Amino acid sequence: MGVDLGDLLERRRIEIKDLSGRWVAVDAFNTLYQFLSIIRQKDGTPLMDRQGRVTSHLSGLLYRTANLLEAGVKLAFVFDGEPPSFKADTLAGRSESRDKAEAAWKDAVAEGREGFKYAQAASRINSEILEDGKRLIISLGLPVISAPSEGEAQAAYMACKGDVNHVASQDYDSLLFGAPQVVRNLAITGKRKLPRKNIYVEVEPEVIRLEEELERLGISRRQLVEIGIMCGTDYNSGLDRVGPKTALKLIREMGDLETILAGREEKIESLEEIRELFLHPPVTDDYEVKMKKPCTEDVVSFLVEERDFDRERVEKTIKKIEEAYRRGQSTLDRWF
Fold first, then answer.
1. pLDDT averages per 10-residue partition of the chain, 336 residues
2. pTM of the full predicted structure?
3. 192 phi and psi, to 5 degrees?
4. Sign of torsion, CA 116 120 121 125?
5. Is 211 helix (H, G, I), strand (E, B) or coil?
6. What's the pLDDT at 330?
7. Can you tell me the distance from the alpha carbon of 160 to that of 158, in angstroms, rounded to the nearest whole number?
8. CA 240 to CA 189: how far, in whole Å?
């Protein structure tokens, strides 16, 4: 998902402790999707309660969030709103790809073959998963922000205002939306198995600083957006045989996307609207970035009594979150 500018951008490795005391706006949809993809049984089946309701995302939210809060990281979850109209084809294409992956997964299981990769590709988020995620986050005392449109755009806006310090996302779109600092791998640190190989690699958090990258590349943010559009975004398919390095070369030589397109037969549908979305996206000031006291009773009732989580493990995890909240309040009190 999103534009892939990884070949252009320098990423600095950091440790979780480097984010201690800092507010991080989390792309909630992206994070839920990661948990749904990664947290599965060996045959690819997601975690479920006795009624067959998926709980992989709730498990990831609870335990990974607790670890981050324990390390001093403060999290605000930003959820997508209404997608722009020109994203419809992309969303339809993703749905079709997941349908095909789900069919391939079922075939693999029936034939006794390895189907985990198909199961991951078949992951999808529905309204129940979204609402369950919001319910748990609120019960943990953490902010839930509803974006009017793209969540990454809202998160970037909050970071530009200084209401949060970083935006956490696996995508690079946050940079196109103007996020000053983007953290990747925040929710998936640790060892990760390489696809189709019995090899595990360390996954560590890394940060990308927008102004440093623009200066190093010698381009403006508008030009970075145009590079992204040439490579392909969630809103367009990009130019034929143009990757990040070629796009950068073209921008440096010709200055802007209109000049580049003037010399090509290809066109980009809705170019002006896509560029405007990245540069001036719909956002809202109707949010509060503040951690509240976790509601232990609500968390236990939801996860243990409704979703069949282990009571002892949930209660132990909630205690870590409560302690993180108390430490935060103690730190705040010292300022007054």
1. 84 93 94 91 91 96 95 96 83 79 78 80 89 97 97 97 95 95 82 57 88 97 97 92 95 96 91 96 97 95 97 96 85 43
2. 0.89
3. -130, 135
4. positive
5. helix
6. 62
7. 5
8. 35
Sign of torsion, CA 13 16 19 22? positive
Tokens of 175: 């940079």
- Residue 201 pLDDT: 66
Report whether 36 contacts 46 (CB < 8 A): yes
Q: DSSP state, 263?
A: T
At 88, is the secondary structure helix, strand, or coil? helix
Q: If you search the block for the tokens 């103007």, which residue do you land on?
A: 178
Measured distance CA(98)–CA(238) in Å, rounded: 22
**Torsion sign, CA atoms 69, 70, 72, 73:** negative
Give the other-Cβ count within 10 Å of 142's Cβ: 23
Tell me the chain's radius of gyration from C-alpha atoms: 21
- Which alpha helices (H) appear in 39-171, and where do they start and end? 56-70, 88-110, 116-121, 127-139, 151-161
